[in-house]
Amino acid sequence: MAGEGAFAGEGRGVGDAQVAVEAVFREERGLLLASLVRRFGDLDLAEEVTSEAVEAALRHWPAEGVPARPGAWLLTTARRRAVDRLRRDRAYAARLAVLQADAERAEAAAPAADTTGIGQLPDERLQLFFTCAHPALAAEDRTALTLRCLAGLTTPEVARAFLVPTATMAQRIVRAKKKIREARIPFRVPGPDELPERLPGVLQVVYSVFTEGYAASSGPCLQRLDLAEEAVRLARILRRLLPAERESAGLLALLLLVHARRGARTGPEGEPVLLEDQDRGLWDGAMIEEGRALVVQALTGGPAGPYGVQAAVAALHDEAADVESTDWAQIVALYDVLLTLTPSPVVAVNRAVAVAMRDGPGAGLALLDALGGEPRLRTYQPYAVARGDLLSRLGRGGEAAAAYREALDLSGTEPERAALRRKLGEGREGG
Questions:
Q1: Rounded to 5 degrees, what angle do the CA atoms 416, 266, 252 make?
Q2: What 3-state DSSP class applies to 225?
Q3: How many Å apart are CA 335 and CA 137, to the nearest integer?
């Protein structure tokens, strides 16, 4: 292993070395994989030699010390393992040669002038982002592959995030890699003409990861903070890699402004705490300030995108001293804009709740009831909860209980179910 980086911290123990390897691996996995894929053109090979490099680090670092540049050490080791493997397997090498020739042709065909500057970015993770989120892959496969390759989650961790058996998730990831290989999907950043079409898919993958972290689809906890924080980290990487794209600023702003409330969203027993009942002193002020600055960037320089508009809504919530002083009129106006950008019944539900806060529960309930025929809302738990809350505020206890029972049937986490059972119990006592 000579020549793979100067070592520091001689004599550290096995535990220290393992902690160091895990920290480096979590932080630099995406960059390491992207560099190897760029060099060898094969995601499977990149993952295998990365794992071998980590195993080598766990053998050498306890005795020799953690290198001063551990990421460079892992990359050098992984590259050597890949070259050794290609020398032994000529068929594998021949297939990779075809993939590399395809990549070189794609680069040669790319526009000579890159006015966005994206082609000059030194960080190769952007190529891996767009490969993992390629439209040729199924939507669930795109998110799974991004979590595996860029967020650094293990296959069992990804399986838990999707609430499927590990074997099922392993098959899903293998399927995505096979699709990339057989369809010869290039590891590259789309050109300026392709970027507007492809970027929303990349942003959506990161947003989907955050959504599952913000409100877990099932399980014992309301939030999956590990997933939410991975999504924030991925959004930060995208923001650094695409500084000229205002929607990358909008996505990061949205995630920061919502994640800033994480400490106040649950009570001592993990129960959900509604926005109006949250201790705003527990909100992360530094994260809010960062998010607010990004909102300005997302909304400046042209028509706003959907993430920028959602971030502006989140900023209005975070800026208000309490629910009563929130600028609900401005929030309704922003939802009007969002409905023109991304018409959906979910956005319409959020707008109806904002109207209820601005004009009273009767006005909001009328809008929710008008949406009752939307098929997507039949399984959308927040719709049933919103109806129950507005019916309760209007004194229509029996109808509110029916809505809460419907929401209870749709709830995936135990804290949500417990909160709804309490609401139903309070309704019976009130009756």
A1: 100
A2: helix
A3: 31
